[in-house]
Amino acid sequence: MIDMSHLYIIVPTYNEAQIIGSVIEEIQRAGYSNIIVVDDGSDDDIGKKLESYHIQYLRHMINRGKGAAIKTGIEAAKILGATAVITMDGDGQHNPADIHKMLDLLGKGYDVVLGSRLIHSKGMPFIKVVANHVGNFFTWLIYGLWVTDSQSGFRAYSRRALDLIDTKHDRYEYDSEIIREIHRHRLKYAEIPIEVRYTEYSMSKKQKQSFINGLRTLLKLVLSA
Predict the structure, then answer these.
(1) How far apart are CA 93 and CA 155, in angstroms?
(2) At how many degrees (to 10) do helices 211-224 and 126-143 cross?
């Protein structure tokens, strides 16, 4: 059983002022009140947008990357006494209704639960399906553990996992590094299918992983292996 008073939802965000309010409200409607938003050096007015919400708001002075934002959120959650953490993207793609499935598995003794877009990929843009399969292959090749969605940002961690996982990268390669840490520490993990909502807004975000950025991520993973 997960102690809900010590569960923290971490939302890394960058220039999401347009959507972040609805993301937080949806999380709160789903029954989760401990929310940490980490603003990764946004240059929009996201801080002002968040003033009326009862959340923890942290800000990087410069843009450091998604991985760095998640790590900042995790360290804050640990200081606040978190026994479990959920990470989810700040662009509205993830459905908080899926959180309860992750918590059920954490409550059964799993250390990490990975939300997978690829178990049921209906509605996922074809190019994203291909790119994620490529990412999965190279993550397996480098780190030795096969998962169906190595790049998903919707994940759950037990306190044990949070204390053991040690990552070095700050950007999109962070997601694959987590797979390495699961394998290295022999953490008990599971994958569950998640709903992903691809909207015109989310697909238009310039900071999303592109083909070129994907190649850069792969190169960093190879060089650091």
Answers:
(1) 13
(2) 10
Domain count, the chain: 1
Nearest in space to 13 (alpha carbons), one of 54, 53, 73: 73
**Helix/strand/coil for 146:** coil
For the segment 100-123, what is each residue's pLDDT rounded down to a tens digit? 999 999 999 999 999 999 887 776
Q: Positive or negative, the Cα torsion across 82, 10, 71, 51?
A: negative
Measured CA angle at 202 (ends 199, 208), to 5 deg: 145
Taking the mean position of all CA atoms in its chain, how far away is CA 92? 12
What is the extent of the structural domain holding 50? Answer: 4-224
Distance, in Å, from the CA atom of 31 to the CA atom of 208, rounded to the nearest integer, reads 28
Rounded to two decimals, the pTM is 0.88
- Contact (Cβ atoms closer than 8 angstroms) between residue 207 and residue 153: no
Torsion angle of the four alpha carbons 77, 64, 193, 196, in this order, in degrees rounded to the nearest 10 = 110
The CATH number given to whatever domain includes residue 125 is 3.90.550.10
CA distance 145 to 25: 36
pLDDT band at residue 225 using 50, 70 and 90 as cut-offs: low
- In angstroms, the CA 176 to CA 194 distance is 18
Name, in order, each residue with C-beta under 8 angstroms of 171's C-beta and a sequence gap of 6 or more.
65, 66, 67, 68, 217, 220
What does the alpha-carbon distance between residue 163 and residue 134 come to, in Å, rounded to a whole number? 30
> DSSP code of 98?
G
Copy the structure tokens of residue 16.
């999401």
Give me the count of residues in the chain. Answer: 225
